[in-house]
Amino acid sequence: MIKIYHNPEKDSWKSLIQRPKIKTDLLKSLVQEVFGNVKKNGDVALKQYTEQFDKVKIDDFLVSKEEIENAYNCINIELRSAIVDAGNNIKEFHCHFKEKRKVIQTKPGVRCWTEARPIEKVGIYVPGGTAPLFSTVLMLAIPAYLAGCQEIILCTPPNSEGKIHPAILFAAFNSGVTKIFKVGGIQAIAAMALGTESIPCVHKIFGPGNQYVTAAKEYALTIGTAIDMPAGPSEVLIIADNYANPDFIAADLLAQAEHGVDSQVVLLSNNSTILQKTLFALKEQLENLPRKSIAQKALENSFFIEFSDWDTCFDFSNEYAPEHLILAVKKPKKYVSKIKNAGSVFLGKYSCESAGDYASGTNHTLPTAGFAKVYSGVSVESFMKKITFQKISKKGLFNLGHTIETMAEFEELYGHKNAVSIRLKN
Amino acid sequence: MIKIYHNPEKDSWKSLIQRPKIKTDLLKSLVQEVFGNVKKNGDVALKQYTEQFDKVKIDDFLVSKEEIENAYNCINIELRSAIVDAGNNIKEFHCHFKEKRKVIQTKPGVRCWTEARPIEKVGIYVPGGTAPLFSTVLMLAIPAYLAGCQEIILCTPPNSEGKIHPAILFAAFNSGVTKIFKVGGIQAIAAMALGTESIPCVHKIFGPGNQYVTAAKEYALTIGTAIDMPAGPSEVLIIADNYANPDFIAADLLAQAEHGVDSQVVLLSNNSTILQKTLFALKEQLENLPRKSIAQKALENSFFIEFSDWDTCFDFSNEYAPEHLILAVKKPKKYVSKIKNAGSVFLGKYSCESAGDYASGTNHTLPTAGFAKVYSGVSVESFMKKITFQKISKKGLFNLGHTIETMAEFEELYGHKNAVSIRLKN
Q1: Structural domains of chain A ordered from first start
Q2: Which ipTM score applies to this complex?
């Protein structure tokens, strides 16, 4: 079922860390066609695609006030409390990351600082499917709201009755989304990137999706709309020592594997008994999993490695740069400084990935496919940009002037030099 | 020479804020060809392109220790001190932006925090040309060094003698660059994105360049290498009141206009006398500018606007989202909160853009072409990513568990639910 390697040579790591890739190349001409049509025909094009792909006629894409009010009453009460509880934790964690202004005097009379400002208009995409992904709504709308974005729009495909699941509507309304639209797929991304009569164009688009949505976001980026981060299948890497509970590890691996057939789960240990026991628990738990067939396929893309050297587990993990990293070890804090590349890290026996996926407070929109080497997960900062400011006094320019003049002269930019000289002469 | 508008209607703003675009579409097949060749033939391909485009044979791309040592002795002494002085200011400003760890307890027993880590390998591109752009070296290498990047490589095209200007070498060595390579153009970006025998591949590429380099960076992004930000011609927008000095404003406009024929300069005021006086000063100063012909063409793309309403100046500026914004007004701090979109802001009479371009301490790598609505300029954070951590105790999971189980159940992810249930049962 799952491959097990023993102390693989460093040469083989490059191929081991390869992920199943989301192929979007073949979709490019379709994406360009949809974008072209949406640009030209606006809402008419959206209606046409919604009928074609979602098999439903939509007259008004905007979800009405009444629909939102109804959602509040329709939604399961237990789920409503759970969404509120998780939302509060997410708010509590995310709200702490707004920087305070700190003025730095780099030379007497030269004062510089940075101020963050919200991105004015942002768009959130929430995929459709059998179950409503309300957790994605919380993870994207809450930081957008905390950042202070003026316009936070959400697009999600309608069901065959032209409706959106009440849990999505409730989560969106409760998290500060300003407008919800019943539109999905490539056409939703095109609408947010270009704007139509009913859907405002936004500056940055967030959210997961299938390969069509991924291809559309990639295209949106090339025409000047920012996106949250490059996409790839979800993944977890677990490092376990002999203290770890194989049942817990197996459950965490399956929680990841059930996401999709291209998900990947990796287990590293210096203890072969743990690997064997986990494999056993995995097989057992898999039998009772409703999404067994999906998980099974994901496990075929996955592997366990036994490294005799403990440090090598961390070297491999850093090369892999997992989206989720679980340290199922006795003293996890001891190893925090060894972690160079990861999206989100879960320390110890009770920090299961599901907690971060839903409710502990951290964000679940994380870099996959090794992008954790470069990109951060979504945070309030993803919805803001920073502006630098400087206030230079007469004395300050006197202190800096000669340096600027000299540098400008050697870069042969005499206009730059003159902007200083003319002030110093004055 | 320069267009002057009076209270243009809001409908016309959209066309006014259009920037001259860098066209890279036609270069795409060339870029793909070069990337393909570099991927296949490595250094051999680089040598071939260097001979073809830079008209010089390079045996070893790596700049030697001796060349760096010689640079220290060759460089003009005044310039050397200026580079050190500017470098110190840039360090002083940039070093303050490393966040401290702050552990947030979102629920009793649920502790979450964020830690920043350097991007391990980064690449800096410095364009060639008649004058050496050592200021770009400082602006990119210093934050990379402060971030703690392990490998900071720099690529810049050699001159016809196969050499790099000593000011570039000195600035690079002094700022913490680990390796300098004599290679430019598309092939340099390809080398950093793919790696060759002599040039290591990097995770993120920074730096300005002509349309070939821009097209190459855009392509690198599509194959998984991060880049600093989308490129566009440089620009300044100045808001002036009747307190402003027209000679200073004219000098600042020309400092921007001399960058390139596609640069854009904009002046907004509620005072027509200031506009007229600035126009007069501009014509006068232009005559003595060595890069007159470039600046003159840039001014043809540029405009002044008289707005009778003062607040409208800020509304227009926010729509334009300038790379550089100068507030040539009596009480600039009064207006800071009105600024929603800008790359870097210069407050008052003595805060000229040249100061930020070279030596005040802020970064000069800034979002152009309206991208200041979404992107920040380069900072230490551009060379880092953030990892979230969580440590949940038994009690913590008990407090969170029901919420997670409920949400997972409604998202039909029973594996996610089980990862909690199995622990709670234990």
Answers
A1: 3-19+233-361 (3.40.50.1980), 24-227 (3.40.50.1980), 393-425 (1.20.5.1300)
A2: 0.97
Distance CA A143, CA A257 (A): 27
> CA nearest A327: which of A348, A307, A351, A342?
A348
Structure tokens at A283: 């097989």
Q: Do B131 and A218 touch (CB under 8 A)?
A: no
Question: How big, in percent rounded to 5, are the helix, strand and coil portions of chain A?
Answer: 50, 15, 35
CB-CB under 8 Å, B389 with A89:
no
Pairing assessment for the beta strands B324-328 and A104-107 based on DSSP bridges: unpaired
Q: Do B361 and A110 touch (CB under 8 A)?
A: yes
Is residue A311 predicted with pLDDT exceeding 80?
Answer: yes
Q: What is the DSSP string of B378-397?
A: --GGGGEEEEEEEEE-HHHH
Tens digit of each residue's pLDDT (9 = 90 or more) over B106-151: 999 999 999 999 999 999 999 998 889 999 999 999 999 999 999 9
Please give the Cα distance from A26 to A215 (Å, whole number).
Answer: 9
Residue A92 to residue B106, Cβ atoms within 8 A: yes
How close does chain A come to B167, measured CA to CA in Å?
9
Pairing of strands A104-107, A110-118: antiparallel
Residue written as token pair 């991304």: A189
Cα-Cα end-to-end distance for chain B: 79
- Interface mutation vs chain B, best among A391, A395, A417, A425, most B CBs within 10 Å: A391
Supply the pLDDT for residue B22. Answer: 73
Cα→Cα distances B54→B60, B156, B161, B384, Å: 15, 11, 10, 33
Taking residue B422's Cβ as centre, other Cβ atoms within 10 Å add up to 18
Grade residue B319 by pLDDT with cuts at 50, 70 and 90.
very high
User: What residue in B sits closest to A138 (Cα-Cα)?
Assistant: B407
Query: Would you state the structure tokens that stand for residue A256, as one six-digit string?
Result: 């990841």
Q: How many helices (H) and strands (E) does chain B have?
A: 16, 14
How much is the pLDDT for A26? Answer: 85
From A181, A193, A82, A87, select the one nearest A137 (Cα to Cα): A87
How far is B265 from B305, CA to CA, in rounded Å?
A: 11
d(Cα B24, Cα B217) in Å, to the nearest integer? 10
Residue B324, number of CB atoms within 10 A of its CB: 25
Give whole-number Cα distances, B403 to A72, B42, B310, B420, in Å: 18, 54, 52, 10
Angle at B365 between CA B362 and CA B367, to 5 degrees: 115
Using a CB-CB cut-off of 8 Å, the residues of chain B touching A131 are: 410-413
Helix axis angle, A185-194 to A28-41, nearest 10°: 50
Assess contact for A383 and A409: CB atoms under 8 A.
no
Task: Find tokens 């953030």 and name the residue.
Answer: B386
Cα distances (angstroms) measured from residue A351 to each of A98, A182, A359, B379: 26, 36, 12, 33
Residue type, B143: P
Helices and strands in chain A: count of H runs, count of E runs: 16, 14
CA distances in angstroms from A342 to A339, B115, B247, listed in the order given:
7, 11, 53
First to last CA, chain A: 79
**Angstroms from A362 CA to nearest CA on chain B:** 7
Burial of A249 (0-12, 13-18, 19+ CB in 10 A): buried
- How far is A99 from A103, CA to CA, in rounded Å? 12
Nearest to B394 among A130, A350, A363 (CB): A350
Instruction: Return the closest-CA partner of residue B241 out of B212, B272, B262, B264.
Output: B272
Work out the minimum CA distance from A8 to partner chain B, whole angstroms.
23
Count Cβ atoms within 10 A of the Cβ of residue B9 and give its class: 0-12 exposed, 13-18 middle, 19 or more buried.
Answer: exposed
- Confidence at residue A96, expressed as pLDDT on a 0 to 100 scale: 86
